[in-house]
């Protein structure tokens, strides 16, 4: 969920600063970790100006990541609930 939040923050920053002279666009890069999960690094691109289509797509991807992670949490909660019901 932190990766999705970073992606959302980067897109929001790029949109908010689209009209700022000299602003260099940010980019969030995710790297898969060997033990599971992802690491996120935020860097500055050499690109200036706005790229609204890319930023909107990035926000939609982040939203879908939040939804997918929520589904995982709900499933885990149900599984723990059923485990506790059967062990009692």
Radius of gyration: 18 Å
Tally of domains: 1
Number of helices: 2
Give the overall average pLDDT: 88
Number of strands: 2
Mass-distribution shape: elongated
Structural class, please? alpha+beta
| Poorly predicted spans | none
Helix content: 55-70%
Strand content: 15-25%
Order of helices and strands: HEEH
Distance between the termini: 33 Å
Question: What would you note in describing this structure?
Answer:
A hairpin with a 5-residue loop joins β1 and β2. It is elongated and about 65 Å long. With 88 residues, the chain is α+β, with helices and mostly antiparallel strands. The chain contains two helices and two strands, in the order αββα. The protein has a two-stranded antiparallel ribbon.
Notable characteristics:
88 residues; two-stranded antiparallel ribbon; 2 helices; 2 strands
Note the topology.
Blueprint: H1 2-16, E1 24-32, E2 38-48, H2 52-87
Antiparallel strand pairs: 1-2
Brief write-up:
The chain has 88 residues and is an alpha+beta fold. It is built from 2 helices and 2 strands. It has one domain (2-87).
């Amino acid at each position: 969920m932190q990766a999705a939040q970073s992606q959302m923050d980067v897109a929001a920053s790029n949109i908010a600063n689209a009209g700022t002279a000299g602003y260099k666009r940010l980019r969030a890069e995710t790297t898969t970790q060997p033990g599971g999960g992802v690491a996120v690094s935020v860097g500055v691109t050499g690109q200036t100006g706005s790229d609204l289509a890319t930023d909107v797509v990035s926000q939609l991807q982040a939203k879908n990541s939040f939804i997918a992670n929520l589904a995982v949490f709900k499933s885990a909660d149900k599984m723990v609930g059923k485990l506790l019901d059967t062990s009692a």
